[in-house]
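Explain this fold:

***
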Amino acid sequence: MPLTDTLSDIEAPRGVSDPVSGLKRIILLKPRGFCAGVVRAIDVVRISLDLYGAPIYVRKEIVHNRHVVDELRQAGAIFVEELSEVPEGGRVIFSAHGVAPEVRTAAIERRLQVIDATCPLVTKVHLEAVKFAKQGYKIILIGHRDHDEVIGTLGEAPESTILVSDVEDVNRLEITNPERMAYLTQTTLSLDETKDIVTRLLERFPKIVGPKTQDICYATENRQLAVKAVAPLCQALLVVGSQNSSNSRRLVEVCEKAGVPAYLLDDCGEVQPSMLENVNVVAVTAGASAPEHLVQELIDHLRARGFAHLEEAEIKEEDVRFTLPADLESFTPRLHTIA
């Protein structure tokens, strides 16, 4: 589906009744929480610990969620920022956000045993970057500077790639050969803002080409569409997710753009009374790396504060599954326990 068409028709939420005056209620969005790439990444760490035992090193946060990282750390995973912190010959897992080729080279030089948990949808973007660079295109990468995923994608073709984060960045572009341009995007961006950036790129560079299918992942899209559909029905949105989670932050932005206050919470302990002041209908969702048990704890917290009625608003069913990395495929995966 082309990016420019993704927001043209938002399906009405199923399961939500007409508003009842004075009734404090919760609208629980679906889909929410873990995407297939996050489930796969967590399973990779847990299966590796079961199979090889500790220590298992993980470069960067396996997914951007504090609770997930803390629970995996307690299970025996050791999180490091750089490969230099991994003993030579040690076993290391690459996070779901992917890495640049120079990281893979460094792993070989240190004789590290690598297990790659990169999300297949991120790998897709990396392969597109390599393809466009080999074909002589100047690549415009739409994304957030310093995000782990963007750093990895930029590393695939650094001399051929320019990063833009907003329309103003596009306006400042100076391209020597506008006949040979392509764009790619980070997988966890705002659909609306990315659409505006792509529209401006097409206005300035009519010959620019994009990926055959959009790079923004299905889970990011579905969770944003759910927020857009439910925003007119609620007075506040609580998003379970960590501050460094790009897709979680985008959910807050989408809701605020619709005129409804939204708050990003690591867990129910961060709920402030002011967030629920004069609110009778509160919507709840979770970013793609947030565990479901945190959502349920938030629901319990809200119920204890008078939000007794719960309705689930289902926008779209999700049934995406990703296979494990080849070196773990022969082992039966243990269901992720951070649910």
